[in-house]
Amino acid sequence: MKTRAVTHTVRRIRRQRARQSGVTLIELILALMILFVGMFGALAFMSIALTSSLNANKLLLARNLAEETLNQIVMIREMNAFGGIPSPENRNGNTFRRLSNRPDSDGIFPLAFQPVYNSPGSDMIRATGDTAEVGSGLDPRYESFSIRVLVRTSDATVPNLGNPTGPPLPICFDREYDNEYDLGNTGNCPEEGIGDTVKRVVVQVRYPFTRANGSALRTVQIMTLLTQPPSQIRGI
């Protein structure tokens, strides 16, 4: 009898241990839920980081393109070659007037945004849309980017509110990197006059920007003042 009782007790203990070992279904479901929440959180963070990195790269490309184009314009101004290098007998002729958006000045820059092509073309400046530039094909580095060059007057001014007794400020003053202030709006920055010898040159690059609720276009704009070379003003 004692042996049978001991055997029964041992079996009962083994059954209890068997019931206590392993993982229940509820415990398994909770563990999987915790695992999935952690994985989704990591994936969401990675997606945000990737989007931010892509946007930063596009901004850098847009800034570099704008600065490259502005440097091209400054170089052409030094060469006196807006619209092409003049012939030797007309080397001091006024090509500065063609640094313009005005058809009546034979301006080389259209007002509309232009695609970004592989080559600046025969006039050696982007955003003019000349035949050689368009024929070079779109630049794959700047897919969905567009660019334009605006020429504005340097004469229009506004009162200097910080120093009312001082000289007035240019109406486009210190707005190069303010995306809320559109230098393409002639109310903000009027177009140049036909005879202006000092011009405000604005390069705008529009690029796609990814947001949580879709994509949008942003614009980088940089600006400088250019003067007509003295030899052209004197007509020598």
Structure, explained:
It comes from Chloracidobacterium validum. This is Prepilin-type N-terminal cleavage/methylation domain-containing protein. With 236 residues, this protein is an alpha+beta fold. It has one domain (50-234). The chain has 4 helices and 6 strands. It has helices at residues 2-20, 25-79, 131-135, 230-234; strands at 114-115, 146-153, 157-158, 169-170, 198-211, 214-227. Strands 1-2-5-6 form a 4-stranded antiparallel β-sheet. The protein is elongated and about 125 Å long. It starts with a helix and ends with a helix. The model has no long low-confidence stretch (mean pLDDT 80).
With helices defined by DSSP (H or I, 4 residues minimum), what is the helix count? 4
CA-CA gap between termini: 132 Å
In what order do the strands lie side by side in the largest sheet? Answer: 1-2-5-6
Low-confidence stretches: none
Please provide the ordered H/E string of secondary-structure elements.
HHEHEEEEEH
| Radius of gyration over C-alpha positions, nearest whole angstrom | 34 Å
Q: What class would the helix/strand composition place it in?
A: alpha+beta
Estimate the strand proportion.
Answer: 15-25%
Number of strands: 6
Number of domains: 1
Biggest pleated-sheet summary:
4 strands, antiparallel
Average of the residue pLDDT scores: 80
Tell me, briefly, the overall form: elongated
Residues in helix, %: 25-40%
